[in-house]
Amino acid sequence: MSGFSEEMMRERLKKLTNTLHSIQTLSLWIIHHQKKHADVILETWVKEVKEQTHPEKIIALVNLANDVIQNCRKKSPAFMKKFLTALEPAFSHIAELDDQKCNKSVLRIISVWKERCIYRPDEIDNLNQCICKKGADSKIKAEFKLFSKITTNLVGVLRKLEDPASADAKVRQLIASYPEAVANPVHLKNLRTGEQAQELMERIEEASPVVNAYCERLKLELQDRRSAQRLLDDYLNALDESTERNKRLIHSVQKRIGRIDQEKKDIEKHIESLPDLSELFSAGPLPSVGELF
């Protein structure tokens, strides 16, 4: 087995490929040197992960970590435990890349660790959170952006409906003031002279643009009311989704609080079980040299 240096570690990681032979060869070399060089190994591995953006290379590095961790489970559990400190920053970087293939591979490996009890349940949850948090954050941001857009559009439509055409009493009164003959062709038979016809024509020409403009305003109002109804439905759906998401978040936080409380109780119980050192030293004088020999 060849010697170890940080430079050699970097070179081997650069040459790593996502093949069984390449991963296992480097894994054995790392395990061989981990007793004396654990910190350098982990720091170099994390640095290499953070420098990478290519999915295949990142997956190879994660598969390498998986092989090292699982092979250290019985032979070097301390290094397996220490590797956990490198996983969280590495997985957080992978999540930032937002590559579906990488995330899927990492989550699959985490699920294997969970099944084989490689790490504690709370540690597994933290690793999952590193990968899922970015996706969750992106989803929340997208939902918030959509919610803001719906709200802005809804407010705009409602403001337009504050002064609707249907409530314009002045125009309605003006239209109502025109003689019925302007709108009802039945009254045409009552015309007797050309002057009456000319007078009616003038009234029609006067009323026509007023009525047409008002009808156009009513048409736009109807469209706004339909838009408001649709936006209200979207708004309520967005509120429902937000409520469900908040419920899930509260449930998740409550579970975490429960685990923390339990760990706190376990630590307190362990502390209480420790012997009182003051009593041990005050129980009596130390034996003399003669009494010892």
From TrEMBL:
Any one GO molecular-function label of the UniProt entry: RNA polymerase II complex binding
Ranges of residues in domain CID: 1-135
SMART domains the record matches: RPR (SM00582)
Domain of life: Eukaryota
One example of a Gene Ontology biological process annotation: mRNA 3'-end processing
InterPro entries: CID_dom, ENTH_VHS, RPRD1A/B_C
Entry protein name: Cell-cycle alteration and expression-elevated protein in tumor domain-containing protein
